[in-house]
Every structure is written in C-alpha cells, then in structure tokens.
Design goal:
Elements lengths: L2 E6 L10 H10 L2 E6 L8 H11 L2 E12 L2 E8 L6 H27 L6 H6 L8 H10 L6 H9 L12 E2 H10 L3 E4 L9 H5 L2 H7 L3 E6 L4 H14 L2 E5 L24 H18 L2
Parallel strand pairs: 1-2, 2-3, 3-5, 6-7, 7-8
Antiparallel strand pairs: 3-4, 4-6
Helix pairs in contact: 1-2, 5-6
The chain binds zinc ion (2 copies).
C-alpha cells in the first residue's frame, strides 16, 4: 500500500522545513503523495510542486484556513485548490492584512504591560514574512522575558491571557465557497482538537454540509482509533468523505511524524482516491450552472 500524508506544513507558515525540503523528506520516507497545507497562505505551493516533480512525489496543492462558525472557530483544509485563483488570492491577502493588524495590537498590549518588544524583533523571527503569536512568543524569549515559548503563551498570549487579541476569521460558509470557487474540496481539520466541545460541533455537521463542506479529517495523527472510526462513520452517514494527515510541522511538533495517522498507523490510501473523486464532483457542479 502506498503511503500518503494529506496534512503537512512548511516554513511558509509555521513549519520548519522549506517546501522543497518537506517534499524531499516525504520522498525519503517513501511517501508517494503529500498535501502541503500551510496556514492561510499558498506561497509555498509552486516550490512544493516543482520539488514533487524532482523527487517523484505527488504534491496536492492545499491550504489550512482558520474560520469562524456559529459556535466558535475551526481549521478548514482546502484540497486541490487552484493556488493562482484570483478570488482566493485576494481573500488570503485580506486575511494577511487582518493578521498584521492583530499583531500590532498584541505588541502594543505587551508594551503597555511592560514588555519592550518591537514589531521589527517579531518580524525578524519569521524569515517568510508571515508571523503571528508564535513569533511574538519567540521574540519575548529572545529578549529574556521567558525561558521558552510555552511559558510566554501561558503567561500572556493564550486566549485568556492579558495580551491576547482575537482576530478576524472568515466565516466557514464563505471559506467553503472560496475553496470551491478555486476548484478545491473543503475538509474540517482535526475535529479531535476541540476536546469536550466536539459533541456540540458534530451536531452541526448537517448544517455545515449545507454550506458545502466536503469532508472530515478523521485519520488525524493525534486521534485515537476509536475517534477515527466514529468520524469515518459520521462522514459516511452525512455523505462526506474522510481524509487523513499528520499535521507535520518538523521537530517543533515531534509527535506529529510525517506520514503517520491515528496511533501511528499509516494513512489510508483510499483517502486520496475519495478526495480526488470529490474534487471532480465539486468542479463539475461548478461548471454546471
Ligand atoms: Zn490546524
Ligand atoms: Zn495543520
């Protein structure tokens, strides 16, 4: 059976490896297909596709977008998107602007609280120009305020922390629309990370299906087999597909090993087949008025 991984990050968002090195690692690990799904950006896709040709790995152009729904927020994966689609690019540009405004607000809160971090320090932590709370935390560590990034989050940057500022997110329905418009399929990422709120969210699946949601990431690295099986059968019940991935980021998240699904199992190759079929459906629905 061929190994796949439908959820990985490069250093174009918060992963450690460049898109090229990420694809090369996949090849070294015997992975035949990999989705590069950076947060709110498609800037790594061209490099990844080129590396895919070089190393003999099928690269699925993807994205992971943080979205709002009626009861909180979630991560939405967009698969097989046309990463040059003008509508998608404009949307991502707007999100980037919102994120920058939020970073500035967080930094000014930190300054009010007596932490002398500057925007330039934080920008220096992110070579690719996309930066966020993780990079702000790194700047706080570099300035000697905290011994590690985790403590900076705990003391200041977590949702209930004194320097936390909420940010603008796309509504789920709109994000699904933009993904479909770019010819891709939209999948709810890692439902298991919602903890005890999961049950409430699962009750919303029918509604989200109405928004056009295509699938659920059941075979997520940190899910138990029990949760995987439950999400797979819910997907089936609702006429959705299921996908799987490791959420590989590099050594900053060592438990998310490339190519690994729930409880260290390999990710089912069928996920890729079903995803491909689903994308064809999305595209033919788009072309039929
Ligand atoms: Zn995520
Ligand atoms: Zn992710």
């Amino acid at each position: 059976m061929k190994r796949i991984d439908l959820h990985t990050h490069s250093n174009v968002s918060d992963g450690l490896l460049s898109p090229r090195d990420l694809v090369r690692l996949a090849a070294d690990e015997g992975i035949s297909a990999i989705a590069v799904a950076d947060h709110d950006t498609v800037d790594g896709i061209d490099e990844a596709l080129e590396a895919g040709g070089e190393f003999g790995v099928k690269v699925v152009p993807a994205i992971e977008i943080s979205v709002d729904h009626e009861d909180g927020s979630l991560h939405l994966l967009g698969y097989f998107i046309d990463h040059h689609n003008p509508d998608l690019l404009e949307t991502l540009q707007n999100l980037k602007r919102a994120r920058e405004e939020r970073n500035i607000l967080i930094i000014s809160r930190l300054n009010e609280l007596g932490y002398a971090v500057k925007l330039e320090d934080v920008r220096g932590m992110s070579p690719n120009g996309t930066y966020g709370r993780a990079h702000i935390a790194e700047a706080l560590v570099a300035s000697g305020y905290f011994s590690d990034v985790g403590s900076a989050f705990d003391a200041l940057l977590n949702r209930d922390g004194p320097a936390y500022v909420d940010r603008y997110r796309l509504p789920l329905k709109d994000a699904v629309h933009h993904i479909h418009n770019a010819g891709g399929a939209a999948v709810w990422a890692h439902p298991g990370t919602h903890g005890d709120r999961l049950e409430r969210l699962l009750d919303r699946l029918e509604r989200w299906k109405g928004y056009g949601l295509d699938g659920i990431e059941s075979d997520y690295c940190n899910h138990t087999m029990q949760l995987r099986d439950r999400l797979r059968s819910l997907a089936h019940q609702h006429g959705l597909i299921y996908t799987g991935g490791s959420d590989f980021h590099g050594s900053i998240k060592p438990e998310n090993t490339i190519g690994s699904g729930p409880e260290g199992e390999e990710i089912d190759y069928k996920c890729l087949i079903r995803l491909t079929e689903r994308v064809e459906r999305v595209r033919s629905a788009k072309s039929t008025p």
